[in-house]
Amino acid sequence: MSGLMVAASRLRLLAAICTAALAGAYASSCMAADDDFYKGKTLTMAVASKPGGGTDTSARLVARYWTNHIPGRPNIVVQNKNLELAAANDFQYIVRPDGLTIGAFAGSGTIGPVSRKSANAKYNPLDWELLGAIDRGPPILLLRKAAQGQLLDRSRPFVAMGSVSTDRLQDAMALFGAEYLGWNIKFVLGYPGSNELYLSFERGELDMFASGTAEIVKRFVNSGVAVPLAAANRRSDFPDVPSFEELLGNKKPTGVEWQAFYAFASADLVDKYFAAPPKVPSAIVKTLRDSFMATLKDEAFLAQAQKVLADGVIPVPVEELREHIKEAIDIPPEVATQVLALRKKYNLPISADAQPK
How far apart are CA 179 and CA 198, in angstroms? Predict the structure, then answer.
């Protein structure tokens, strides 16, 4: 090789090394800028729920500890958006993708309408930048102690079962209890949030409702007003409460009929989930995802969550959350037909558009 060619080769190698070094320096500066992105800023957490319910309680607890794990430690401000559908639609189309707004949602309230093809659901959670979710533990169905004699006696006044969205596991338990155990119940619809259910139960307007929040369950059981009927699945913090499947015993349906139980409340496969709006820059999304999962491992958070929410709060990473949402939306046709028949039989809304206000 001539001296001129060797010199040219060395120049090309030097240029490549310089380019790589510059790229590395640029990446480092970008990383540094990203680490400082939230410094001195306010991060708004838009909660698609009224104050006081399970979604609001969960979101505020997460927000309290999340800021400690976000580089720059932004001030997190929680804002309640009372109408879940409107909040989800706004999140899809109106909220700016600047990384300064995140959303907290209930699976039943926002995924259910998409699953039921509601014309009012203009959004798709799969379009959002999902950050992760928490599972507080399965809901426990509570019955007013004074109404115990009415549950299996259809000659007496019906047991009033309160419902927010009719897409939750507690709704499936109540409906399948009526269908296969002969429960004498009637759904009372139109409650805008869980807090309104609690108040209505306290006033004696409802006889049955459910919650996955340990603090709420203990409040009504310990006061002697309610007795626990069943949990969607066994819970270690309420060891004497049977699962709904155990309660069904040999009356448990099989095949498509039992698949309909989970499909009926498929949106409740996701408990409380968190997201950023579409098109937020990937570096910011990664920061939010990493810090969210770090929050759910925080010992102080876990200790408080065990007191307020349930025993053994389960963190749900993004990949698992996305699969749960897909499963909730894509229900096999034969199962969907069974769910539709049950909804019609018990006068439940076929789509979210029919939900009483």
Answer: 25
